[in-house]
Amino acid sequence: MKKFLSLTAAAGLTAALGAGVAEAKGQQKVTFEVTITNESTLDMIPGAPAGGQIPLSPGVWAVTRGADNPLFEVGEPASAGIEDVAEDGMPSVLAAEATSINRVTDSAVLPDPLGPILATQSYTFTVTASPGERLHLATMFVQSNDYFFADADGIRLFHGNTPVDGDVTSAINLYDAGTEVDEAPGLGDFQVLTQPSLDSGPAENGVVAPARADGFDLPADEDVIRVTVTPVG
Fold this sequence. Notes:
The protein is an alpha+beta fold and 233 residues long. It contains three helices and 13 strands. Strands 2, 3, 5, 6, 7, 11 and 12 form a seven-stranded antiparallel β-sheet that branches. Strands 4-1-13-10 form a four-stranded antiparallel β-sheet, with no helix packed on it.
């Protein structure tokens, strides 16, 4: 009887340990440093304010379970939070929207303290994620009516269980929020650096779409923004 109980206990312990190991593997946590660099230069947009550079506005980042984007969806109307970021570089509403979504495991505004990321400047923050989780972010292209840099499907932080290490800018694209009628970048009277007041431009009543469909002469995404991720622990 004692032998039977001992074997049963051992079997149970082995199963429990195995389940614990499997769970630990599934919940592996890795901390990443994420760096956003403004690659724009002065006179990148001729005649524009701010010396023709393209500042990146305060925005929002979020880590989610799965690829579904908590910040926006291409082909759908922009949320109030995306509108605020894309038109005026104001992140507070979008940050609140992100934290209210269950699949968001962590989020915050960027940069902190708030301020634009100017040409040649960088901002680094840390996120902690498990395999299967992705990073999402949104920041304004500050020479526009309502353009923003973001990732439709999220930035992969793992390949399988292996942490990503390197340049992930290819996941970033420039989008038009569809909330304000567009003017030529850097030349409009209702863009954030020239508008008479916040949210003063004519409403567009559109949907989120790739900005390049508007037909303006725009620099390549990688000439304005670069994003890298580095596992640090």
